[in-house]
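FAQ: What does the model actually see?

It sees only this:
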Amino acid sequence: VFVTPSDSLAVIADRGDAAIPQFRGGLRGAARSMPSSAALDVVAERKGIPLFVTPTGWKFFGNLMDSKEAFGKEDYSPFLCGEESFGTGSDHIREKDGLWAVLAWLSILADANDGKDKDGPIVGVGDVVREHWEKYGRHFYARYDYEGCESDKAEEMMEGLRALAAGAEVEGGGEGIDFVKAEEFEFTDPVDGSFSGRQGMVLRFKTAQGDARAVFRLSGTGSAGATIRLYLEQFDGEDTEGSATERLEGLGREAIRIAKLRELTGRDTPTVIT
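And it is asked to produce this:
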């Protein structure tokens, strides 16, 4: 089974207090970038861990880690954080740490196999993740990248989404996916008070399975063109098996239709799907 970075972060948050010495007393804080899935949110709520949803960029996590020492505010350490692009880390360093993430998972696997019959089956990564989904539900997740789009057309698409947030109506619909609202993500840093605006457009939906969302962000809007990133997320608390790509196809079509991405960019398919 493929473990998304968002699911990995949630599993570490859930099992860390039992498996990772650094977290034995429990986490005092956790954070994820806004485009990452809400898998971490569910764990944090159940375990009473203060949670922060930040813009993309490790500096926002660093401020939270330094909240007490540098700013004389709340102490959030031990702290866990990560992004959907595979960055994961803790307060031992102010940067993502892949080696630490591997060691964290090895500690989780060692704990999961502790006391098991040495001649019996080994509890593997897939077992741990499926047990997590059974306990918390699954956040099906995928990212579509449209590279090299005309910058002015990409910006026009984003302005259209901002119009939806301001109250413009959405026409049509279907596939059992009901549009709820559009909103632009903005962030005021709880540590230093700095403000970050225009951090992505979020479309929220309701489906028979639960809440869903689509996030649109632009990157590299220079002379070489823009990359449109579309993040798709669908929660299902019961049917947790299956391919995320297939489960998210309908949501992707609806988000693309509402954003008029195909009409504005001429792109029929993403450059990359992850």
